[in-house]
Amino acid sequence: MTVADTPGTVGPAPARTPSDRAGAGRRDRRRTELAEYLRARRARVSPEDVGLPPGLRRRTPGLRREEVAQLAGVGVTWYTWLEQGRRINASEQVLTAVARVLLLDAAEREHLFRLAEVAVRRPAHPEPVLDPSTQLILDALVPLPAAVSNSRYDVLAWNSSYEALFAASRTRTADGWFNSLWCTVTSPDCCNPFLNRDEQLPQMVAVLRGAYGRHVGEPAWEEYVRSLLAASAEFRELWARQEVSSRATSLKVFRHPLVGVMRLNATYLTIPGVPEAYVAVYTPDSPQDRARVERLAALAPGGWTAPCGHTRTGPTG
């Protein structure tokens, strides 16, 4: 814990540019918001909530500042300055202790860290938890293929149309996930669902590179990238380009052994409360494509065998 504005060498202050002033204004506003947030959270926690006696003559609800400081193991003066919006630095360890005392849940803790401009450390590869209503929404989108994936292209949930679309390419990653990027780089040409693969694969790798930047050093991510590098020379070449992109609506051209060629627009929607997860919905590009999608949806689950000797058991794309 250190005071940010430590006295230094005396001399004329350098001229501040408009950008410097704007940045300073944002930091001041963030500190003010942090102070107000801490005071509001402190006021909602009673002494009994944290194992303290209620005490007498409390003029305001909630904990006192000195009680928060004591329970968090920080100095009273330092915590008071933090609540006053002073220019001080807060470490991850100290903020974690304050969040524990104030009984913050995951979303509230993340908000605290952002206001204090401290990076939020996430689990390396947490097990995704989807609300049961997510599957109901996916099923209601039929005949449109739709699925939920994470930033590693692991497919977490899907509907029957999506499963029928990718039945010929059902390979899994080493840790057991259905994974659309793994499918794209490892499926033989006869079973690869993408006709415009040369357009789609570089974009997919560039999006992965952008997501990887948020997880560098995490064991699950490092192992995933290593497995792709080992499995595909094409992936190695694309990964070496160091190209970065964000996910955007794009036209994908699919081929299906029973339905034929379909031109579908992939649209991506985020899911509140599920970090880095998104819904991909594939909409027909023309009336002819719409008719083929409806034929795709009519395929009974488990009712046909995919080419290349693969039996239809689940999606990967």
Itemize the secondary structure elements and their pairings:
Layout: E1 2-3, H1 18-43, H2 65-72, H3 76-83, E2 88-89, H4 92-101, H5 106-115, H6 132-140, E3 146-149, E4 155-158, H7 160-165, H8 180-186, H9 197-212, H10 219-231, H11 233-240, E5 250-256, E6 260-270, E7 278-284, H12 287-297
Antiparallel strand pairs: 1-2, 3-4, 3-7, 5-6, 6-7
Helix pairs in contact: 2-3, 2-4, 4-5, 10-11
Architecture overview:
The strands form two sheets. A five-stranded antiparallel β-sheet has the order 4-3-7-6-5. A two-stranded antiparallel ribbon has the order 1-2. It has 317 residues and is α+β, with helices and mostly antiparallel strands. 27% of the residues are buried. It has twelve helices and seven strands. Helix 10 packs across helix 11 (233-240). Residues 1-11, 171-176 and 302-317 have low confidence and may be disordered. The chain has helices spanning 18-43, 65-72, 76-83, 92-101, 106-115, 132-140, 160-165, 180-186, 197-212, 219-231, 233-240, 287-297; strands spanning 2-3, 88-89, 146-149, 155-158, 250-256, 260-270, 278-284.
